[in-house]
């Protein structure tokens, strides 16, 4: 099985998409960080001031920046699956490993590893931005306390699990464009609305991104009121449940299908 | 070396909805021989091969490699190599990386990738992305992929498609070498008999999903008996007169008669006596292509 996982990673790292996605993900995280840093301490109109750059609250908020990267990991997961159908390399893959369940498992494991890698990359970028910012502002850097480890773990776990969502969705849909567009619409439109509009948050908190937000929730009053979220443990369970469902979908749709 | 049936297909059937792509087909391929799997487009060749390779699940029957279903092979690439469509490569991956990915999955040393590239004459293009390859180069790379694990059985689906005459000549030599020197069992499909005629030892012919002939090339040419072919709108009227002369008459349809056991002059005399208008009267040559067309023509 380790050979198969290595083969899947090799597939990913011998084409260009992974580093394009990595760059876009870092760019996205960077923009989020820039906004967070730029607006720190700013007084919203009529509202309370956002926490200043030296505060723990600022650091907590900044550390969540990497969470937005999960969509890129999901797209990578989608491509890991749909690319095989698009270029018909699935034939070669199944010829060398006719027990298809093993191929799916190897993809899921490889996806998890890549998700972790992306999550860690986002954290490193965050560290590079947050630590100097806090020091310059004369604050005390919090890394192992103040809820920061939980947020870091949340960012990495979310990233890893979104890779599985992508692989499952890709196995189900198989058409690369349709799967990618579907994922983007879901994350940026459907989930954004469900988690942002208070009346819909009863549903929204059970969506993948709603559950993911509960892992990295911080008490920052942005003037919109605190969002209605699950407790972190429940959010984690919901995310893992989604990942299992997507993994199951990936297996069931791949094992029996005729490759013509 | 153990003599065993390398490929054995027994009563294989597969339907796609209402289309019976493969209908109760049986044949076998022995080690050290090249078998041509022939039939017009849509005959069911690809479906048969994909069933054999575990890519398509058969509705009935069995397809075995070395006595086992493909999906039960522990190290499939070390036993079976396959060349299917020409396009199954990621265009952004280099030829070498393509092979290395497979080496990793199959537990083969990465050095096999370079050896295989050398063997199919792609060593110079090893580090080029496959997206820039010609069809012929892709076919070579596919062959390199198929032979990575030094398999004892080689299955090729229309490998000559897209090859130029020199490429086809190279392919023939490559297959002959593998079969006759290395004892590999080769099954190669084609819709053009002439493409494989000079290479194959045996032929299996399929049309509309059904097997229509299996045997050696010599058997196909019918060692000798060459019928007289008559075409006439009034062919029916000729039959009694010919049979009175002791001829055996086949009627493949469309006003065509194939007359065995008498010479062309006897047939001509019957035409004269019966005052039938004929548009063709010729002693058939043992033209493989004609036999192939005849065997596989639409009913
Ligand atoms: N995935 C599929 N779905 C529906 N029909 C198919 C599929 N694959 C093949 N067929 C049909 O099965 C028949 C045999 O096709 P195929 O095995 O590709 O023939 P060949 O390789 O001899 O040209 C054809 O009628 C073809 O249209
Ligand atoms: Mg075909």
UniProtKB/TrEMBL annotation, chain A:
Keywords: Membrane, Transmembrane, Transmembrane helix. It comes from the Bacteria. The chain crosses the membrane at residues 17-41, 61-83, 104-131, 151-173, 180-200, 232-255. PANTHER family: INTEGRAL MEMBRANE PROTEIN-RELATED, MEMBRANE PROTEIN. This is ABC transporter permease. It comes from Planobispora rosea.
């Amino acid at each position: 099985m380790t050979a198969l996982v290595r083969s899947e990673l090799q597939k990913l790292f011998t084409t260009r998409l992974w580093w394009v996605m990595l760059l876009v993900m870092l760019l996205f995280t960077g923009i989020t960080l820039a906004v967070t840093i730029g607006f720190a301490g700013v007084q919203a109109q009529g509202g309370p001031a956002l926490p200043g750059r030296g505060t723990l609250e600022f650091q907590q908020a900044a550390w969540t920046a990497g969470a937005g990267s999960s969509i890129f990991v999901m797209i990578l997961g989608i491509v890991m699956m749909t690319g095989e159908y698009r270029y018909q390399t699935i034939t070669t893959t199944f010829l060398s490993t006719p027990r298809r369940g093993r191929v799916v498992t190897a993809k899921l494991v490889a996806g998890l590893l890549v998700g972790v890698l992306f999550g860690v990359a986002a954290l490193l970028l965050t560290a590079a931005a947050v630590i100097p910012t806090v020091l310059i502002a004369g604050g005390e850097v919090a890394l192992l306390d103040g809820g920061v480890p939980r947020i870091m773990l949340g960012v990495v776990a979310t990233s890893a699990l979104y890779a599985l969502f992508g692989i499952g969705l890709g196995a189900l849909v198989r058409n690369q464009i349709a799967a990618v567009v579907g994922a983007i619409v879901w994350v940026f439109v459907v989930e954004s609305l469900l988690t942002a509009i208070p009346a819909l948050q009863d549903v929204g908190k059970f969506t993948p991104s709603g559950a993911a937000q509960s892992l990295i929730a911080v008490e920052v009053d942005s003037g919109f009121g605190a969002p209605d979220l699950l407790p972190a443990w429940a959010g984690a369970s919901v995310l893992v449940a989604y990942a299992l469902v997507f993994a199951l979908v990936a297996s069931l749709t791949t094992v029996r299908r005729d490759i013509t | 070396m153990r003599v065993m049936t390398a490929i054995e297909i027994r009563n294989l059937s597969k339907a796609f909805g209402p289309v019976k792509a493969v209908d109760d087909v049986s044949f076998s391929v022995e080690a050290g021989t090249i078998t041509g799997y022939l039939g017009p487009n849509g005959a069911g060749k690809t479906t048969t091969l994909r069933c054999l390779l575990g890519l398509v699940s058969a509705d009935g029957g069995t397809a075995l490699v070395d006595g086992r279903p493909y999906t039960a092979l522990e190290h499939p690439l070390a036993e079976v190599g396959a060349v299917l469509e020409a396009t199954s490569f990621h265009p952004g991956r280099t030829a070498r990386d393509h092979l290395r990915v497979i080496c990793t999955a199959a537990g083969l040393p990465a050095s096999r990738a370079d050896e295989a590239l050398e063997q199919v004459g792609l060593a110079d293009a090893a580090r080029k992305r496959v997206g820039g390859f010609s069809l012929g180069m892709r076919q070579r790379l596919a062959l390199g992929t198929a032979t990575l694990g030094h398999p004892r059985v080689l299955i090729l689906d229309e490998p000559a498609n897209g090859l130029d005459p020199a490429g086809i000549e190279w392919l023939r030599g490559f297959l002959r070498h593998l079969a006759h020197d290395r004892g590999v069992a080769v099954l190669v499909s084609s819709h053009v008999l002439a493409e494989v005629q000079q290479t194959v030892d045996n032929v299996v012919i399929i049309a509309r999903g059904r097997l229509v002939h299996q045997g050696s090339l010599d058997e196909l040419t019918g060692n000798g008996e060459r019928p007289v072919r008559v075409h006439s709108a009034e062919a029916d009227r000729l039959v009694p007169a010919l049979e009175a002369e002791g001829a055996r008459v086949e009627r493949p349809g469309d006003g065509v008669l194939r007359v065995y056991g008498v010479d062309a002059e006897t047939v001509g005399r019957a035409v004269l006596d019966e005052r039938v208008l004929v548009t063709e009267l010729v002693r058939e040559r043992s033209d493989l292509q004609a036999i192939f067309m005849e065997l596989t023509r639409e009913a």
